[in-house]
C-alpha cells in the first residue's frame, strides 16, 4: 500500500498517480488520524492468518454479507462503470474491501477538495468509515479483483 496527497485538480488519466509536487506521502497511521481509514495487510497465502484477520474485521464491523467483484475492460459498460466509480460518494456503512488480485486506487476526502490517494494491491484490506467522501478507480493495468464486505444485504451482493 502507498498513500499520498493528490494534486488539487487532477487533469488527464485518472488512473495515473496524480501526486502533489513535490510528492507528499503519508503513513497508514497518518491516514487513520486524518481520515479514520483503517488498513491491514492480509497474507492471502496463509489461510489460517487470513481467516483470523478477516474474522476479526467481520466481527468488529458486523459483516453479514460478502461478494467478490472484478473490475476489468471485459465487464459490461466498463467505461460507464469507471465514470460511476470515480464520482465521489458517501456511504451509510463502512466500505470494507480486500484486494484479492490486481491493483486499484481509493481516494478519500477528509476535507473539502483535499484528496488522499490510497494505492492498494493484493492482500491490502481497507476500511473507509461511513460518512467519508471517497471514490475508486483502477491503475493503468485496468484490473482488480476485490472481496467486499457488508454489514447488511446490498443489491447485487451474495451472502
UniProtKB/TrEMBL annotation:
Main location: cytoplasm
UniProt-annotated location(s): Cytoplasm; Nucleus
Keyword check for Cytoplasm: yes
Any one Pfam family match given in the protein's UniProt record, by short name: ARD
GO molecular function: acireductone dioxygenase [iron(II)-requiring] activity
GO cellular component terms given for this protein: cytoplasm; nucleus
Protein's UniProt keywords contain Ribosomal protein: no
Function per UniProt: Probable inactive acireductone dioxygenase.
Family classification: Belongs to the acireductone dioxygenase (ARD) family.
PANTHER family xrefs: ACIREDUCTONE DIOXYGENASE, INACTIVE ACIREDUCTONE DIOXYGENASE 1-RELATED
Protein name, UniProt field: Probable inactive acireductone dioxygenase
